[in-house]
Amino acid sequence: MGIPIDPTWLEAVLLATVRMTAFLIVAPPFAYQAFPGRVKAMLGLGLGLAVSQWVSDGYTPRDTAGFLTGVVLELVTGLALGFLVLVIFSAVQSAGSLIDLFSGFQLAQSFDPQMNVNGAQFTRLMQMAALALLFASDGYQLVITGLTGSFVALPLAGGIDLAQPVQAMTSAVTGMFLAAVQIAGPLVVVLFLADVGLGLLTRVAPALNAFSLGFPLKILMTLMLAGFMFLALPRIVSSLANQAAKTVLGVG
């Protein structure tokens, strides 16, 4: 018994799988190192099969050189789209870095090989919380929806206009810094005012040596006020997921 296989459909599936897998390697939350590479490859193949009927309509088969060129173009496209999503979600990590810097936790900076994060306690804690919220709130489905919708703006093996990803990347970096300041801004302002108050107290009464209380006081204030920031984190992650989906859909 023979199983007929359409070569056009198979070629389209392979190209779509390359884009999907390249995206999953870079974009959060799938870039988390706890996921084995084989799982990412299987997920990329499954997503490629899911959009196979869609992307194969109107696709023209290519020769060997054209197919290899298409593979390279799809690899670059997937990596570029994944990097855009990575930049957007880096706002949470940047907010944690600001808190660590102003609270004094930055002295305990270390590298986390699983999340590829180089930061102190709040940097890693907020990154882990954001990854957990992406899965708990189905935010990852919005990211995948944006990826599947990118085949409309960027057809298979059609290449990518470098001007549009660069423009989207510039906007994403600007939005990342703005979101980081908005997330960590209130706590950073409180910690800055605490430093100003300790400085004024030292000038008024130098014998008190108020700066010796600086680290314990700022750590206590950070732990007390950080809970209010985590209350807003689910809404922030949902907004970042929507922004990531819109950014991926807008590149074309």
Question: How would you characterize the overall build of this protein?
Answer:
This protein has 252 residues and is mainly alpha-helical. The chain has one domain. Helix content is 75%, strand content 2%. It is built from eight helices and two strands, in the order H-H-H-H-E-E-H-H-H-H. It has helices at 7-26, 37-50, 52-56, 64-103, 121-136, 139-153, 163-204, 214-250; strands at residues 110-112, 117-119. Helix 1 crosses helix 2 (37-50), helix 4 (64-103) packs parallel to helix 7 (163-204) and helix 5 (121-136) packs parallel to helix 8. The two termini are 43 Å apart. The model has no long low-confidence stretch (mean pLDDT 80).
